[in-house]
Amino acid sequence: MPGFHVPLEIANEIILHILDAPPTLREGTAENPKPDWKLIEAFTLTCWGYRLRALELWFRSLYLQSADDLHAIPNIFPTLKGSWTRHLHCVQYNVGKAADLIWDLAGFSSLTSIRIDWLHENTPEEKLSKIYPHEGAPCFINVQSPIKELDIRGLRYPTPMAIQSLTTSFRHIATLKIESLRSWCGLCNTCALIRFPGSTPKDQLYEGGLGLSIHYARILFSFQHLEEVIITLPDLGSGLPSPGFPIDSGDNLWTGECDRCMDQVYHVAGFKQQWMSRKRGIGTENDKYKRSVYTRPPSLKRVLWKFWLYEHKPGYTPRTYTQDEITFDDAWIGEHEDSDSFDSDTQN
Ligand SMILES: [Zn+2]
C-alpha cells in the first residue's frame, strides 16, 4: 500500500520487542550480545522518523572494541553520548601502548550500566604504571553518569590493584560483577586457579557485608552505594583437602583462598580461627595482623560466589581462557610470587 505508515509509536514498540528479545548463544566473553542489525534495518530505510527512532533504540546499548572509537562518535551521531546510550559494553584487547587503554567517557550523561571485557594479557595496573605514577590508576576517565552496575569479565589476574583500576571511576555502583579465570587468594597474595576437592560447590551467599577477601574489601570500602558483589569462577577440580573444605560446611567463610594455602596453614593450631576472625573484622589482642582485618563497605548487603566446572577435555577452551594458560599456571606463579607487594604482612 503506497504511502502507508505504521504510527511511530507502534514502530517503536516493534523495534523494542525485537531488540529486547533474550540474547541467543552469543553470551561469551567479548561477543556482542545484541541482536542482528538486519532485524531492524528495514525500519531504518523507510523514512527519516523511523530511522532516527531505530537508531536511538539500537544505541541504547553500545558495543565497542576499541577506546579509540569513542572519539569518532560525536561526528557521526551527535546525540548518542548525551541521550541515547544507557549501557556501554567495552572490549579491551591486547594493544601496544598504555595510552590505548584509557577509555574517555566524556559526554556520556545517560549511562546506567557498563560491562568491561578485559582480554588484555596484562592487568590494567601493569600497563598503566607506565603512564601513571601511582598504582590502581583508572582505565576509565571523565565518567559523568552515576553508573549503577559494573560487570567485569575475562580478567585473568584479578589482583586488588586490577580491580581498583577498573572500578575506581564508578563511585555510584550498587552492583559489581566480576567473572575471572583466577581468584585472589588473601593468604599467598597471588591470583590462583581454584581447585575444589570433590564436587563443585553450590553458590555461596554471604550477607551482612561479609564475604569479600580482605584486600577487595579494602579497595571497595569507599564505595558508599555498593550493595552487592557477584564473583564467578571456574573450578578446575582435584584440589588438596583441608579443614576449609567443603566451603559450604561449618564456619569456613571462604573468600577465594587457594587450596595450596589452605592445605598448608589451616592445619596449624589456631591459625584458621584467627584467620576467620580477621575476615569478620575482628582483630585479637595477640594478633600481629590486627591492623589488616576486614572492613565492610558501608552499604554492602550480599556477596555471592558462583562456580562453574572447567572440563579437562582436549581442545576445550571455555570463554577466552586457553588450555596453555591453565596448564602452565604454576610457572606463572613462580615468576610473579615475589612481585606483588600489595600487603606483605599477610604472608605466612
Ligand atoms: Zn593461596
What can you see in these coordinates?
The protein has 348 residues and is α/β, with parallel strands linked by helices. It has a domain at 181-348. The protein has helices at 8-19, 38-44, 48-58, 69-76, 80-84, 124-128, 160-167, 214-220, 259-265, 271-279, 323-327, 329-336; strands at 61-64, 87-92, 103-104, 113-118, 140-141, 149-155, 175-180, 183-185, 190-192, 204-207, 228-235, 302-309. The strands form three sheets. Strands 1-2-4-6-7-11-12-10 form an eight-stranded mixed β-sheet, with no helix packed on it. A two-stranded parallel sheet has the order 3-5. Strands 8-9 form a two-stranded antiparallel ribbon. Helix 7 (160-167) links the parallel strand 6 and strand 7. Helix 1 packs parallel to helix 3 (48-58) and helix 2 (38-44) packs antiparallel against helix 3 (48-58). The site of zinc ion has 8 residues, from helix 9. Zinc ion (ZN) binds next to helix 9.
